Amino acid sequence: MEKKSTQNKDRILSLDLFRGMTVVGMILVNNPGSWSYVYSPLKHAEWNGCTPTDLVFPFFLFAVGASIPISLYSKNGINRIRVWIGICIRGISLILLGLFLNFFGEWTFSELRIPGVLQRIGFVYWVVATLFLIFPGKKVLVFLIPILLVHTWILTHIAPPGESMVSLEQGKDIGAWIDRTIFGEKHLWKFSKTWDPEGFLSGIASIATSLFGVICGFILFRREGRGKNRVLSIFGLGFLFTFVGLLWDRSLPMNKSLWTGSYAVYTTGLSFLCIGFFEYLDSLILLKKWNGLDLKIFFQPFFVFGKNAILVFVGSGILARTLNFWTIVLENGKSVGVKVWFFSKLVLFADPYLASLLYAVLHLSVWWGILSFLDKRKIYIKV
């Protein structure tokens, strides 16, 4: 990991804000006081469908893709082999961090979950950044549609060996069979056992999400396009992809675990719409509108989360697991986890669902304090 005390002076605020709000959402939905008491919008869809929580991961992968042209264009003039080595190091580092998170608190290699969120981020980043390096500019986008179509064809036309029919049910699709074959059942998500929400085949499809982000990155990078035209083009793409995703959903249901084409395109559309809205806010900052309100200060909590995204994701994961297995002894001699104990205190003042949400907000607030401290000192931890 690398500590950077300075940042690019010409940051794109809309992308920072989008990434920050996505990370805030990620921490919020991953840290309820109790998984038994979670409001519906803060839950993933059971299988088909798309809740607000199901937007978090594709939004982040979209942001990863949008950052790639901005980042790699800034490295013009540097030896391409050196740049690619840096890409490999970053991708591998993210995968190793993800494996460490899965290992932390479980302390066993025999049932270590191999797939995971950071593993997918590292894999997708490595693939898209490598493609962008080999096929610079918009040439890289020739891979986008084929990835979606080939993934869809495999998912809907190939049955797992031993099965006579194609199925998109939990654990019965070709992707689940691939995961069991490559990783083994003992190394998949322990709550599903026979399939993994961050599996191999869906990981291939998620590359398309980051490639869509690359399109947005091109638009954001063109500084001469700043203003109404740029905002309108982003909004236009947002509405187009959202509509196509909804239309596709009628024949191929949105499904995060399968990362179906309809899900990828629909969440891409919403990503563009969010970026477009934040670009509009960015223009208000530059024009000093809204009666002198400084939106940088107003949205400060989100900016600090976006600037130290990997740090807070890994750190919050470690903290959450620590609070689960760190126990205290009650007056009756019974040992309970710190998280369970603290949640039981919150329930005394609020109903379980609200108490569970308050716990997540408090967890988020702790990290806001830490990240604000680091931001004031311009300390940013990058992989």
From TrEMBL:
Keywords associated with the record: Membrane, Transmembrane, Transmembrane helix
Domain DUF5009: 45-135
InterPro entries referenced in this protein's UniProt entry, alphabetically: DUF5009
Name of the protein this chain belongs to: Membrane protein
Domain of life: Bacteria
Species assigned in the record: Leptospira borgpetersenii serovar Javanica str. UI 09931
Parts of the chain that traverse the membrane: 12-35, 55-74, 81-105, 117-135, 140-159, 199-219, 231-248, 263-281, 302-320, 353-374
Pfam families tied to this protein: DUF5009 (PF16401)
